[in-house]
Structures are given as structure tokens and as C-alpha cells.
Amino acid sequence: MTSEPVLVAYGSTRGGTAEMAEWIGESLRAAGVDAEVRNAREVRSLDGYGAVVLGGALYTGRWHRHARRFARRFARQMRTRPVWLFASGPLDDSLTSGGPEKVPGVKAVERAARRVNAREYTIFGGRLQADAHGFPAAAMAKTMAGDFRDPQHVREWASGLAAELIAGPR
Ligand SMILES: Cc1cc2nc3c(=O)[nH]c(=O)nc-3n(C[C@H](O)[C@H](O)[C@H](O)COP(=O)(O)O)c2cc1C
């Protein structure tokens, strides 16, 4: 296993995805893997990181711009490290009843996964708070507010990554 920390980077507008990144960081550390959680916008280099988890919210069929930019900017370095991607989006239970294929924005995450040679990408439920500000979020919140994130599921996913890292190179 690499002794260098895992970077957990996120693109988040309203804090829901940022909190998921913290859950992932906690879960990795609980499994004995060093991890640092950072806003993707603030990362200047991947030097010193042994692996990367990159997450972003889905907005209007696109992956969060800070996650997209991160994947473009660091594509070359990401391809030489174990990388996992995640997105947070659906404001309903569609993911538990069906697969992620129909989630608006999943194609963008799939493209990024190919670009950076990610081991896996996954889509988690999202969160929209009832008091969300901004257009069109405030209007959407009138009918779609809710928290469809599942902390246990996210933590279990992260434990799986830790197990892969501890097992060593593929
Ligand atoms: C304006 C707007 C557009 C959205 N578009 C999508 C979308 O295309 N696909 C999706 O799955 N979720 C969509 N969502 C749900 C968000 O992805 C979800 O609220 C997410 O958890 C927000 O993350 P954040 O709190 O980190 O910004 C949208 C939400 C808003 C407010």
C-alpha cells in the first residue's frame, strides 16, 4: 500500500457534496488509510498524494465545474495513480429502484472517468435544502427539497476503496 495520503477533492455549491467528501475521508482514515479532504478548486498539485477520490455535484446535466476542471488539469497525473470518481445528484430514490444510467449528468462523469483512467465512478443521491438560495435552486426547493444522501452507503463505498488500497497494486 502507498504510504502517501489519499486526496479527496470535491466540487460543491451548497455543501452537500463537500460533506460527503468528509464522510469519505473519515471512512478511509478509520480503515487505516491517510486521507486529506480539499475543495477541488484549491488544489494546485497532486505531488505527495498516492491516490485520488474526486467528487462533484450534478447541476443541469453536468458534473460540477470544479470537478471537471480538476479532471482536465490533472488528467496526466491521475492516470498514474489509483483514482475513483463520484457524483451526487438525484433528489429522489431513483438510484435504489434503478441504475444510474438515466441520471442527468452521468455521461459527463463517465467521460471524466475514461479521461483519468478511474478504477470506478459512482453516483450517490443528492441534497437540496428547503431554504436554498439562487435561481433556479430556490424554485426547485419548493417541490424537490430533501436529503437523499445515505451516509452509511457512502462510508461503505469508501471502506471498499481503502481495502483496495491496502491490498496493493492491481
Ligand atoms: C439548479 C439545480 C440543478 C440540478 N441538476 C441536477 C442534475 O442535472 N442531475 C442530478 O442528478 N441532480 C441535479 N441537481 C441536484 C443536485 O445535484 C443536488 O442537490 C446535489 O446534492 C447538490 O450538491 P451540493 O450541495 O454539493 O452543491 C440539481 C440541483 C439544482 C439546485
Automatic annotation (TrEMBL):
Pfam family name, one: Flavodoxin_5
Signal peptide region: none
Flavodoxin-like domain segment(s): 6-162
The protein's name: Flavodoxin domain-containing protein
